[in-house]
Amino acid sequence: MYTVGLQSAADAFLLSSLKAQVALAFLVLFILLVFGFGSQKDGAVDGAPVFLPGSHLLAIAPFFRRRFEFLNDGFRKTGQTLFQFNMLRETVIVVSGESARKSFFANKHFDLTEGFKMLSGAIPVVKGVTSDLQTKRIAQIHKRLSSVQRNEHLSRLIAPILEDCRRVMETWESSGTFDPFEKIYELLFQTTVRSLSCEELANDPAKVAHLKELYDTLDSGTTPATVLLPWLPGPSMLKKLWATKKIYDIIVRAIDERERSGTSKPDTLQMLLDEQDERLVIVGFILGLLVAGARATGTTASWLITYLGDHESKDEVIVEVEQLLANHASANVSHSLSQQLSSIPLEAWESETPVLDSLIRETLRIAQPHTAMRRNLGPDVTIDGKTIPSGAYVVYPFSDVHLNPELYPDPWRFDPTREEATAPFGYVGWGGGKTHCLGQRLARLELKLVTSMMLLGFRYSLVNKKGEQLDAPPQPNWNDILLCRPEQGSCYLKHEKSVLSL
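Structure (tokenized):
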């Protein structure tokens, strides 16, 4: 499944001396400079967006490491709503403003897959499994994701997800302090493995923890070099290759185990097997969607629970969920909290929780640091009088709309009572135009179940590392393009169990 040449090069690189590795790195840098990668073009063609001043080599690292600051700085330096820079040999055009936003999300030739592949690099890359996929295979994966979110399948997931919450939360002890951006994220990783893979993995805490560790290795190994020069066997690329192969092997072993057993289980893997999908489709579905789902939903859950720490909406959510219990749950006092919540039907979770819906919407607005990436696979396009040439990469930062004070006054303030902006594409928390989050129904359910368990199972507040109560929650770090985490050590949850049995 892996490119033989790259593996051979990686082996050779590992066996070489440190001097040889350093010499190779300098050689690659020299080649890049010799072939003209070191400076922006002297001037833009008439009708083209203005170039970001300075060397584009100096723009590459900030684009990946401090993207929020880099893009905002680009708008300030150029004084334009569109600007461009070179990513090695590729043209990248950054757009902003209402008309650009409408054009970006409405253009059928702006391709998500091509844009994400070039400019992100945060998904495990296995040729034919998560990359270089045929259109038919991509459509098949999307179709299966829709199947996972059918009423029957989602209804079956409610009890196992709540049981996962109970088991993980029991490890927190009856009282203590923890970092929500570690513990809540770990919990959502568990529920995502439950929702999108199989019992063989989800029922084994050690395997789930190992998978998370491997995906974290992928995150830390994603650098400008691994994205733009994937053929270069540097240390970060070797880490990514190693982690990807380990993840691939774990998933394949779980599939093999299921097939050998001949047993049928009510999980996503069984659905994929019953559909008689190709092995590559099954592995690609689990390999890619696990990390995509865990990152997005884990980030949102961590921030949602953090924002509710000392917010007035906390009591409103508790009342809302207690009303669900009164309307739908059994009155058996011997049942644990997770058992009581599991008796609430899917329809009620989706249609009778307006407070939770507003909280999720506001959390996505303020703490989801997404930058939409596309590639223009069609003819040249004009946006705000500027030409977007065929083949160019186009980038739209969600901060342009979600942190826009003209659309959302005091945009960094968490306010779930806000009205959604009425401007075109004034809210894109779940995507926009022809590209929406295909897993949003599952994500909403996970967020509601986890939040309900947290709020009804614990009393908690926000404290600093000294245990002193915080006056306000921390500000999301939009430069952390994967998880939006605040400064490490700036926020903890001080919790105390409030029910006898989770």
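The longest helix spans residues 279-307. The first strand starts at residue 50 and ends at 51.
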